[in-house]
Amino acid sequence: xxxxxxxxxxxxxxxxxxxYEKWVKNFGTYVEAKTFADRIEYPENFATxxxxxxxxxxxxxxxxxxxxxxxxLEYLRTPAEQLHLMLYFYEFYFDDKVYxxxxxxxxxxxxxxxxxxxxxxxxxxxxxxxxxxxxxxGLSVQISEDWLMANIKDITPAKLDMIKQKDxxxxxxxxxxxxxxxxxxxxxxxxxxxQLFIKSRVLRLTEHFLNGVCNKGQYNTTEFxxxxxxxxxxxxxxxxxxxxxxxxxxxxxxxxxxxMSESKLKKLxxxxxxxxxxxxxxxxxxxxxxxxxxxxxxxxxxxxAMLGYQNMSNFSAAFKKEFSFxxxxxxxxx
Length: 334
Known about the structure:
With 334 residues, the chain is α+β, with helices and mostly antiparallel strands. The protein has 12 helices and 13 strands. It has 2 domains: 11-210, Jelly Rolls (Sandwich), CATH 2.60.120; 227-333, Homeodomain-like (Arc Repressor Mutant, subunit A, Orthogonal Bundle), CATH 1.10.10.60. The protein has an 8-stranded antiparallel sheet, sandwiched between helices. Strands 1-6-11-8-9 form a 5-stranded mixed sheet, with no helix packed on it. Helix 4 packs antiparallel against helix 5, helix 6 packs across helix 7 and helix 7 packs across helix 8. The longest helix has 22 residues, at 194-215.
């Protein structure tokens, strides 16, 4: 393998899909990363951050990455002969743009933030272009054809052919996805069984995504005909999750942010996330409160204030409506 000129022109990494333990090892060698027991650390002239991977069971492996690019990068995956599915749960923060072409499907964003849950397969060429300064954080899962045949109860060769013919299936990263990803990135190290901790959450995300694919018929998840609408809904959801400490932004404000009518925004948001905008905001606000209280670092009044409540009775009532117990009862409920 020829070593890249890290200090020179943008790095282009060409590869075909293999299990993620091998992929991380090969990519680490390519960029001259430092290898540790559970991960590789990228060199500063390429990126700041790490990647790690494990085989969960035969036919299913995962890769976790968290890095900030210090140079332009292009991933170029060439089609493989053997079918594997890849699930991606990724967030990108950037000053320039993100560009990804999977088969004939193009994803391009310059909104400074982009997130997606995406399914593609190893038979399809993929080209991902990222600029210097981009923050990349996410989880990838690779699934073999044998694993699919053994684990999806109603899988048939015909349905498998439908998967092969689909370049790319995109869906939204919900707050539930984000919570599981947050556990992987922030809480695994505190577990007495960190590898089991991560594996259990990888399987949970895999089950949730594949169930959605199977349940929605024709092996399609929530797809928007207009990519700009898809990106606009992502932007609105990101704003809602960022604004735990502020008052709920008006539907009018959110609609202006999305460059669409209020009625269209409400319809598309419910289609994407399964509930009304305020309901989604309040539900995840209360789950944030539960997370803060469960850490035992803050009192009930402190958490209520952190979430913008001036009246603690209103906070307690909202919390109880969501969880059926008061915030003061959190220790007994856990």
